[in-house]
Amino acid sequence: GHIKDKRIAAVQALSGTGACRLFADFQKRFRPESQIYIPVPTWANHHNIWRDAHVPQKTFHYYHPETKGLDFAGLVDDIKNAPNGSFFLLHACAYNPTGVDPSEEQWKEISKLIKEKGHFPFLDMAYQGFASGDPERDTKAIRIFLEDGHLIGIAQSYAKNMGLYGQRVGCLSVLCEDEKQAVAVKSQLQMLARPMYSTHLFMER
């Protein structure tokens, strides 16, 4: 697997917000010409995070207020029409604020289209275990992207599904091409974290 192959660059972050911000700064530094596509609606702080990292933002259709469901047709069109190699912010499960998640078949179609366009999927997973009641089942979207061969970024927050007294626990993971790239990416993430919150904290592997 990817862990055994040492292809994952992972650093502890200050919950999900810190993981998103660390990735936004990483995106700005190494893909300065890129932009981030953010769903409508989304957690309000997403816009603040990428704005303060000076990453240009665009939005894509996600929620249909009339049906109170997923605007899948609009989402698909926006993925297709975005410039090749764009970054897409996706909620891995328990979508905030609507609670509307794609079905397994819809996730497979989203993954396929993102792969065809060469987009980079960044998944924010703040509520693992809260959508289905099973933390393993709630990784469904991530597993689909991995099975399709994507390189992905994942922001994980553990502020809701566990607690560590006095700490804001989170993790930023980036799946890389190989172990050499993972070592390089991790070193850059650590350098970005240093002036942000001094240390990559206590969960070094």
Short description:
With 205 residues, the protein is an alpha/beta fold. Helices cover 37% and strands 21% of the residues. The radius of gyration is 16 Å and the shape is globular.
Structural category is alpha/beta
Low-confidence stretches: none
Count of β-strands? 9
What global shape is seen? globular
Biggest sheet features: 7 strands, mixed
Oligomer: single chain
Helix count, per DSSP? Answer: 6
Name of the CATH first level: Alpha Beta
Q: Looking across the biggest beta sheet, what order are the strands in?
A: 1-9-8-7-6-2-3
Helix content: 25-40%
Mean pLDDT, nearest integer? 94
Count structural domains: 1
GO biological process, one term: amino acid metabolic process
GO molecular function, one term: pyridoxal phosphate binding
Pfam families: Aminotran_1_2
GO cellular component, one term: mitochondrion
